[in-house]
Design goal:
Distance between the termini: 17 Å
Number of strands: 5
Helix content: 55-70%
CATH class: Alpha Beta
CATH topology: Rossmann fold
Structural class: alpha/beta
Radius of gyration: 17 Å
Order of helices and strands: EHEHHEHHEHHEH
Number of helices: 8
CATH superfamily: P-loop containing nucleotide triphosphate hydrolases
Strand content: 5-15%
Length: 214
Amino acid sequence: MKGMLVTLEGIDGCGKTTQSRKLRKYLMQRNYDILLIREPGGEKIAERIREVLLDRRNSEMSPLTELLLYSASRAQLVDRVILPALRKGKMVICDRFYDSTLAYQGYGRKLNRNTIEYLNRISACGIIPDLTILMDLPVVIALKRKRKKMTAKDRLEQESMTFHRRVRNGYLRIAQANKKRFEVVNSNQNIGRTWLAVKRIVDDFLDERRIDDR
């Protein structure tokens, strides 16, 4: 693959979407060919699956159904969008990728993590992000941020505080187990300071890639 895949992860309200947009703007100014997408979604069929997943009326959805729908959405996105972009040499910034599935459905829903990792490999066609930035902050603060921005919670945001704590702890364990590609950012600060941390990580990553390519 000629391109690069950078993913941003974290619990709802961590600020990853804001930082993804800032990163896209910054890298475009540096003349990188950028594609910013989100998961689930990012493609016509994948967006329809997203609607089903987040619809509050689908409260009876089983954890296994949820897992398979996330995997299906990712498989469509990878095949139709991510792989073609990487082959063209684009830098793809993805707001969530398969680490979210391991954190939410593995640690949050307590589904078998080996099964999830197997499905992740299949749905991602073996792609591994070149860099993953985990936006980390306490669950209480994250949920307060979400409440300020939204009048209605989606299906996952209605989950208990205990569920979201399991997800956050899951993310931290995933990052610890994948130190080569993960960088953890303290997002319990203002947007500007958080952005400086994200920018430094990406700048260092790109500098290392340039050295490796020589």
